[in-house]
Amino acid sequence: MRIRWPRRVSGQVLAAQLSITAGVMVLATALFLAPLSSEIDNQAMHQALAIAQTTAADPDIARDLTATEPTPSGPVQRAAERIRRATGALYIVVMDSRGVRWSHTTTARIGEHVSTDPGEALSGREVLQIDVGTLGRSARAKVPLRAGDGRLVGAVSVGIGYGSVRDQLLAAVPRLLLYAGAALGVGVLAAIAVSRQLRRRTHGVAFADISALLDEREAMLHGIREGVVAFDRHGRIRLINDEAGRLLGVRPDATGRTLEESLPPGRTTDVLAGRVDGADLLTVSGARVLVANRMPTEDGGAVATLRDRTELELLGRELDSTRGLLDALRAQDHEHANRLHTLLGLLELGMHERAAQFVAELTNARRASAEQISERVYDPLLSALLVGKSAIVAERGVALRISPATLLPGRVVDPRDLVTVLGNLIDNALDAVAAHPSPTPFIEVELRAEGTTAVLRVSDTGPGVPPGMREQIFTEGWSTKRPARTGSPDARPDAHEGFATVSPRGRGIGLALVRRLAERYGGMARVTARAGGGAVFTVVLPEALTGDDTPTHEFTAAGESR
């Protein structure tokens, strides 16, 4: 009848453990019994050696050996027999320097030459051996016998009967088998306990099912477009899928390392480590905006999920740009309507020369503002951004100034990056100035080139940034904007008037993106105080400009090249 191998994991583990336990016990018993015989022989030889050394140490035996004759009733025979009976030895033979026996268990052999070669013992060396003599196989020891003055006068040979050695071996086997059986029983009970525990943990599934589940998990983890990172209770990365590695910029060998070893310090590391509470937390990794959630597990670890929100953020910024353009158009429409009404009134009053002068002044002022920008900022995208922002800023009662030090050639490597930086800084400055009334509110923009390095500086007349918060405002979740609702649980007002911070679920991504973009270029972003009040944001972007000195086109207000 064929024995069927169990299908469940617990049954297979039990059968495997029982087989391994039984095999180990049989092997251990065999390996123990194999050297046991030689070990017992060795013990018997050393026991014989101890008896022989004790006999040779008796000074009376050496003296009688040299002073008497070898007889069955002589003093040497009596001393040797006394020691033999006391120790249980098979025999004790005392011989002289010629190899003649002076003592023996069989008294008739006294006076005869020994049956084995005594040469080594008579030369002064101790001998241990298993040998066959006149009394059969025995474990024997031979030691030299010396007189009181150190002269070698003979030798002592002691034998332990080999039958007693074999009896010890046979007597040890049942006890050894008993111990082996007890150990096997304990192993069986332990295997059964482990099997039951495993059955509860695996819910009785089979190995094939586990393999299929693992394959499905690997396919799911590495196939989904959401990053997944699992941590153990010590904070080491236990699992990371391909998308998480891409979003975080982590190498595939990060498994087994801590977050601090795999990621630079910052908000992303704090969010994944659980040092920031909340759901759908925004963080920036490289140039990507991520939404992170962290769920603890029962074993003390955690699983964090990451969603890439960069595209949504870009769409949001494009929407903001569109709204800004609409605001600029609305502001221009409102401004043009007022000017047309004024022009209409002048015409109806018959002040035709004044109307013509009014139209000329408006045209010259508009052209002067646009030409001032295009003459100092050659890149069309940056020029258009400044022209559009000037209309929005003016509608809110704030002046947008171009610093006299501004001069940026049109050899920008990626104008979109500079548009992102400059747009964020102007919007941030406008919110700060609008929330902090002053007699002459303004925003001043400075763009200049230092070799291939672009330097962007935006100053304002707002409340400024307290020194203790000049690093925090560049982290995700911090904002210089006042919360929309007073007392909102997401808002944490700062002691500085007009300055507040909001949670990551609100705003606080713009300045963080500015710093990350600057760091990507190998530059920096910082904020300092402006003389007279306000803040100065400075962004340095190395290698943002090409080394080509070819003259670039300037653009007029109408967008025509000249």
- Quote the beta fraction: 15-25%
Task: Using the coordinates shown, work out and report the CATH topology of the largest domain.
Answer: Heat Shock Protein 90
Can you tell me the overall shape?
Answer: rod-shaped
- CATH homologous superfamily title of the largest domain: Histidine kinase-like ATPase, C-terminal domain
Radius of gyration: 50 Å
Give the helix proportion (percent range). Answer: 40-55%
- The arrangement of helices and strands along the chain is HHHEHEEEHHEEHHHEEEHHHEHEEEEHEE
At CATH's second level, what is the architecture of the largest domain?
A: 2-Layer Sandwich
Give the count of structural domains: 3
**Rounded average pLDDT:** 76
Ranges where pLDDT stays below 50 over 5 or more residues in a row are 482-507, 550-562
How many angstroms does the end-to-end distance come to? Answer: 99 Å
What structural class do the secondary elements suggest?
alpha+beta
Q: How many strand elements?
A: 16
Question: How is this structure best described in words?
Answer:
The chain is of the alpha+beta class. The protein folds into three domains: 11-168, Beta-Lactamase, CATH 3.30.450.20; 225-308, PAS domain (Beta-Lactamase); 373-541, Heat Shock Protein 90 (2-Layer Sandwich). 46% of the residues lie in helices and 19% in strands. It has a five-stranded antiparallel beta sheet, sandwiched between helices. The two termini are 99 Å apart.
